[in-house]
Amino acid sequence: MLVKKPLPSAGMAAPSTAPSTDEVALWYHTLDLPGRAPTPGWFDLRPVLGRLPWPEVRGRRCLDVATYDGFFAFELERRGAAEVVATDISDHHQWDWPAPIREAAGDQLGLIAGDKGSGFAAAHAALGSRVEKIEVNVYDLDPGQLGRFDVVVLGSLLLHLRDPVRALEAVRSVTAGWFMSVEAISLPLTLLARRRPVAELARDDSVCQWWTVNAAGHRRLLEAAGFEVISASRPFAEPFGSAHPASGARGGLRDRAFRGLCRATLGGVGVPHSALLARPRR
Ligand SMILES: C[S@@+](CC[C@H](N)C(=O)[O-])C[C@H]1O[C@@H](n2cnc3c(N)ncnc32)[C@H](O)[C@@H]1O
After folding, report:
1. Whether 179 contacts 281, CB under 8 Å
2. Low pLDDT (below 70) residues in the chain
3. Engineering a disulfide at 243: which of 40, 76, 124, 266 sits with its beta carbon 3.0 to 4.6 angstroms away?
């Protein structure tokens, strides 16, 4: 199902339905917004912007899939995109929850995270952004409804999907130019198997994670979905934001070992990621 959520254009007053930035129950992204301290996000992507293989976005039609609070969508706008569309699911029940918790998990996440999209709406109003938000599941991306985009960005979603290749095929269907995939990867599997694509299947239902690939696996997923990978970042850490439970935490031996490995191999602490720039194979 595709639902267009019209949001205020630059200069227009925020609608009364947009929550204030102080009313957002949980921020996923650390965002710089006018007139307040950075939002207390779970993840702070600001330091990794310079490590990503950005294509030219100025003057281009751009799409940010699975936007959450909109970090990449607002960044595309800041970089001069002519038009930015941001998509996400409409409610917490639409995540690919494993069967044992499918009924209850959406409600439980709602209690913690609040209304889906409230952070995006608050940030959008605070920024006076022109980004257009559309509620559509990644599997349902359709060029007949959305058109095609010069630049598509997808961050940290594939590990949450039961069928990442089907999702990537849908992404490819709306990609006319460049696709930048910024995805969580397994650091141990990346170090152990540099060229062989491998994935680990999660054991914990509650985090709604499925396949965590190594860096070679990330590339392989895109190729299997019909993309040609043009360039790749070195693996990097997506830093925890101030609200993340792991932020600043000094846990046990395992946690300290993970942090040491991150520092030694990724240059910082956070969730290991790799970023690929690709285009649809002709
Ligand atoms: C881990 S967050 C990543 C947010 C952002 N893209 C980033 O890179 O920081 C995952 C996002 O994917 C969205 N999502 C989960 N399942 C989805 C699906 N099937 N289709 C589209 N979006 C989905 C979630 O609502 C959430 O906004």
Report:
1. no
2. 1-16, 249-250
3. 40
